[in-house]
Amino acid sequence: MLKDKFYKEIPNVIHPKEKLVATHCSYCGMQCGMNLRVDTTKNTIIGVEPRYDWPVTLGKMCPKGVTAYQQTNHDDRLLRPLIRDDASKKGTKEGFREATWDEAYDLIARKFKELQSEYGKDSLSVYSGVSMTNEKCYLTGKFARVGLQTRYIDYNGRFCMSSAAAGFLRSFGVDRGSTLPWTDIHETDCLFIAGSNTAECHPTSMFRVWEVQNRGGYLIVVDPRETPLARRADIHLDLKPGTDLALANCMVNLLIQNGYADEKFTTAHTNGFEETKELVSQFTPEYTSEITGVAPEKLIRAAEIYGKAPNAIVMFARGIEQQTRGSDNVSAYTNMSLVTGKIGRPKAGVATLTGQGNGQGGREHGQKADALPGYRKITNPKHVEEVCKVWGIEPEEMPLPGVSAYEMFDLMHDKTIRALYLLCSNPAVSAPNLNYVKAALKNLDFMVCSDMYLSESAEFADVVLPSVTWSEDEGTVTNLEGRIIKINKAQEPIGESKPDWLIAVELAERLGRGKYFSHLTTAAKVAEEFRLASKGGYADYYGATWDKIEKQNGVFWPCKDEADPGTPYMFLDHQYYHADGKAKICALPYRPPAEEPCEQYPLRLTTGRVVYHYLSGNQTRRIPFLHDMCPEPYVEVHPVTAKQYGIEHDELVRLYTRRGEAEFKVKITEAIRKDTVFVPYHFGHELAVNLLTIPALDPMSRMPEFKACAAQLEKTAISKEAVR
Description:
It is built from 25 helices and 28 strands. The chain is an alpha/beta fold. A hairpin with an 8-residue loop joins strand 1 and strand 2.
């Protein structure tokens, strides 16, 4: 067993006045198992210990996970509600005063009622996040549609997992981020990983990745940068940002032309093979090389390795998804598994490396503009009727679908949306085209933000409500495998902070909608209603009780009743979720990124993570160790490019696009293409790379194209010595 090979479990030694609370990390979709150390005399979290019993990571934690507990009792925590007294200081930390919860609730209820009375129900909006538990995500959707009665709700997963969702729905008829458990990864014969800097973004997966090679298997990596993962790859396909669809089509073409297609499988279990075969035939290695910049021999060898492998897993992340063709990229890479029949069995399939902790569960239960609990569609009358029975409303009371996250900012600009309730998200850092987004937030008549810290987005609010951290509440999240797991409470909320589910219940009461929420007095009661609301949906959680989750160390959905142990492997019977039971092999014509380099903007800008930070950095930039390891962003530039521009390592340069500009120190490295520059996106205000990114949207997922836009560099007047 892998555990026996790599680990000798070390017993946790605990002081008599301490206890261990088994839970999971608050950050990425790995949801690494951890034990929080709690001083029982002070009811305070004081440290963390590994959980060797957690099968996904076997005691592994990354720098973020090891220090995650430090966010709970941090000096920056918001302890009481804040009300803005000076509207002229919106967009800054100034102009707030402390208030009571009653005063804050009364102001929110009054303003919301006034705006809806004058401008209609849909003048209010909700923008939420997927670092919350399933229970909170579910209740947020219900609060928007029943408490506020507005159509306008969307979530930050729109910028993270929406293309994976759209691609999987088109290919399989269902969106679960992995068709097999993560514990299979190290046993496969080939990993084909596209658009994932796994070693930094999901580092606790890496011992399984390396074990594939240790066993004699192969690793193929698609990335414009020579990341730590790409450096160890057997084949590194170093493509131009935004050209994944051409590369994926080439892979499928080569697999078919060289005899690796399983036509018995495709005939019996798929549609679209012949159309796809015809379309991809133009994507020869030579033609694809012209588009992507990848050498033809690399393309040929990669297809040969994947084609010959008895078992193979195709994996991908935001690198392929945050594009205007992100949904197509997901379906195109998924075609590799479907054409070869390497799916619906152990050690083979498709998986996405989920960015946010509850990126899977958070998109399934009602936060999306067009979705209802259980992954039901708000445009489907039967689905609406099923949910309305649980909520106690009539189907005609269900609001219409809203718009995607970025499109909500358009509606704030034109005053269609007048107010915003923002929770568990920081779009003033994470959204593209930030100058436009910040102007939209300033244009609101009224804004409420629920957060544990005064984030860059909270600086635009009129009322800020102090919410709890993950360790001060309980509930479930769904990790990147589709495994539902339990988050356990380790200490009582500090100050006057409250969990977001309770804030929603109490606000609904103030708004005169309490009869739909007053029974939800604990997280456990929210969980019971949430399970009932998901029952019968594609993402059916009804059988995933908290007790079962604890006993089984997680439950894979769908889990339809209490006797059902869950579904670790999808499609073992080769039955997919389309009406005819077949998967769809998608014929997808190539289209370049929305913005290609030109004489004025000759470089390609791409963005991503570093190992020390998470998303907008609202949490991790406050942790001393993580901040010290990466205190500021930088721009990666190839040595040849640096020489052309006459710039040196650590020199300050101005990077600009058609949307804005920002200054960064230069990091000269050969680990990037000569035509590409890279900036990490975890930093706010004038250091936010999203001041530059383009808001071009995928037509299916409405995902912005964070990973590719045209840019230019220039030296600043500040000398290198002055920077130092």
